[in-house]
Write a structure and sequence with these properties.
The chain is an alpha/beta fold. It has 10 helices and 17 strands. The chain has a 7-stranded parallel beta sheet, with helices on both faces. Helix 3 packs across helix 4 and helix 6 runs parallel beside helix 10. The chain is elongated, with a radius of gyration of 22 Å. The structure holds flavin-adenine dinucleotide. Pfam families: ETF, ETF_alpha.
């Protein structure tokens, strides 16, 4: 009976006791859905010694936090986390269950959806709800990014989705918010686990710096060639920004793939995004359209990038960028 299922849940991903940014963003998105549906918003926290994180989950918008705390869940493993989630989901029956589209979030959500015999919309970029039918509307680019598809899970519960990092907004942290903490005991034994975490190697590539950068200077094929693209690096160095680019630039070998912005690259929300010599194809725009200020430079006044730009400069990047560098150096 799908009517038995109530409440919006967010899987709170934590690594070494630090909550992932996407989980806080999902609490912000989940809050809106829960308010519309007039139900509680819950965070689901799994791990070893993670109870101390509950106030933080409440401060970012949760009414309740379900906690399963066990030494066997110290490091993420599909097997142990699945057991924790299944225990909670079967007992409390959430209506909507959201996960960050991180490697662990994707892994866990797909395994949970299979065991709960429900559907899962992967890599969602927009969330809403049809109040009358109490249906989650999870939207994502489809058919090579040419359309946005809204996917509904009509007959099964919970309605599940993984959501891309940086597309939703976290609420302001408010330590005066109050909420309920619900602890569940779990029976787990290390010797029953079929996998073992041997070593965790931290990712120290440039990817993190692009995702977290406040200012990004991104270049496209309009920079002409690898040499022309050096102007993008020069401008970024001058103003202390990170460099990004389009897929065409990555395919041309001017930038490594981890600096690609867009549907098949990173989704980012810096304060300032320079889009230079970038046409503004939808597959690129989905990765940067939520930036606070978008400054586009393109010689084609009809380039689609101007539709999402806060400020636009129509002209030749080869002339404009050196002038910008000169001006910023004076400042
Ligand atoms: P172009 O589209 O060639 O645009 C170059 C622009 O530069 C033009 O607007 C031109 O007017 C301008 N220009 C030329 N010379 C100058 C000059 N001297 N001064 C100023 N402006 C100039 N793309 C991504 O970026 N990210 C993705 O993640 C991504 N994923 C994709 C996934 C799929 C399944 C598919 C099918 C495509 C994907 N793409 C992605 C590719 C995308 O469709 C576009 O092809 C790509 O974004 C275009 O890159 P661009 O803007 O650098 O090049």
């Amino acid at each position: 009976m799908i009517e038995e299922y109530r409440g919006v849940w967010v899987f709170i991903e934590q690594n070494d006791g630090e909550i992932e940014g996407v989980s806080l963003e999902l609490l912000g998105a989940g809050r809106k859905l829960a308010d519309k549906l007039e139900v509680a918003l819950a965070g689901v926290l799994l791990g070893d010694n993670v109870k101390s994180l509950c106030p933080e989950v409440i401060a970012y918008g949760a009414d309740e936090v379900y906690v399963v705390d066990h030494p066997v869940m110290k490091d993420y493993r599909t097997e142990s986390y699945m057991k924790g989630i299944m225990l909670l989901a079967e007992k409390y029956k959430p209506e909507i269950f959201l996960y960050g589209a991180t490697p662990n979030g994707k892994d866990l959500a797909s395994a949970v959806a299979t065991d709960l015999s429900t559907g899962l919309t992967a890599d969602t970029t927009m969330l809403d709800v049809d109040l009358e039918k109490r249906l989650l509307e999870a939207s994502r680019p489809a058919f090579g990014g040419n359309i946005m598809a809204t996917i509904l899970c009509k007959k099964h519960r919970p309605q599940m989705a993984t959501v891309r990092p940086k597309v939703m907004k976290a609420l302001e942290r408010d330590m005066n918010r109050t909420g309920k903490i619900i602890e569940e005991e779990i029976d787990l034994k290390e010797e029953d686990m079929r996998t073992k975490v041997l070593k965790i190697v931290k990712d120290i590539t440039k990817k993190a710096s692009l995702a977290d950068a406040h200012v990004v200077v991104a270049g496209g094929k309009g920079m002409g060639d690898l040499q022309g693209f050096q102007l993008i690096h020069e401008l970024a160095d001058t103003i202390g920004a990170s460099v990004g680019g389009t897929r065409d630039v990555v395919e041309a070998g001017w930038l490594p793939h981890e600096l690609q912005v867009g549907q098949t690259g990173e989704t980012i929300t810096p304060k300032i995004y320079f889009a230079i010599g970038i046409s503004g194809a939808i597959q690129h725009v989905v990765g940067m359209k939520n930036s606070e200020f978008i400054i586009a430079i393109n010689k084609d006044p009809n380039a689609p990038i101007f539709d999402v730009a806060t400020y636009g400069i129509v002209g030749d990047a080869m002339e404009i960028v050196p002038k910008l560098i000169e001006q910023f150096k004076v400042l």
